[in-house]
Amino acid sequence: MKPCTALATMVLAILTSLALAGSAAATSPAPSDGIRLTSAPDQLKTVIGEHFTYQPHIVNQGKTSTERLIAHLNVASLTSDVYVDPEDWSSSRSIVVQPLGPGADTALSWDVQAVSAGSFAVYVVLLPTGTASSGTGALVVSPAVHVSVAERRTLNAGGSLPVVIAVPVLLAAVVTLIRLRARRVPAT
User: Is 97 a domain residue?
Assistant: First the structure.
């Protein structure tokens, strides 16, 4: 692994661990901030290659309308031995969310495909578009969904031994019969 990639992976893993271990106040804004972001379920099990739907929910608990928001999907490995390229997991990672009035809510939806075995955190980060270009403003991070991805066996060895033995035996028998018949046929 390249040193820059290793460092980025470690920093992302530490930040994700802090988000998972933190209290609800650390993963979602205080009610005075106005925007609340939730995810359900908090755990998911799947196998490599399977698709699942990630659907976080945004609620404006403030007294004023939000500005337009960008919701950005993130996938992070919870171990340092698995490299994650979030674009492999979902082809469209950002969704523009139109302004939400006071008390309004909306659900987001991403089709996600598990591409690596291991333990992962899937979460979304919201940032207002007015602050996106300047890089300022508070980010709102959803609670992470812990996704356990099992390896998929592509070859099932159960029941294959009879086939492995029978096919060569049958081929040998067919070749032997053909040779025996060829010897019995008189030459003309």
Answer: yes
Query: Which residues constitute the domain of residue 104?
Result: 3-150
Domain count along the chain: 1
Whether residue 169 is contained in a domain is answered as no
Q: Which pTM value belongs to this model?
A: 0.62
Residue 156 vs residues 17, 117, 152, 161, 168: alpha-carbon distances, Å: 36, 18, 10, 11, 20
d(CA 17, CA 9): 12
pLDDT in tens, 5-55: 544 455 454 444 444 444 333 333 333 358 888 888 889 999 999 999 999
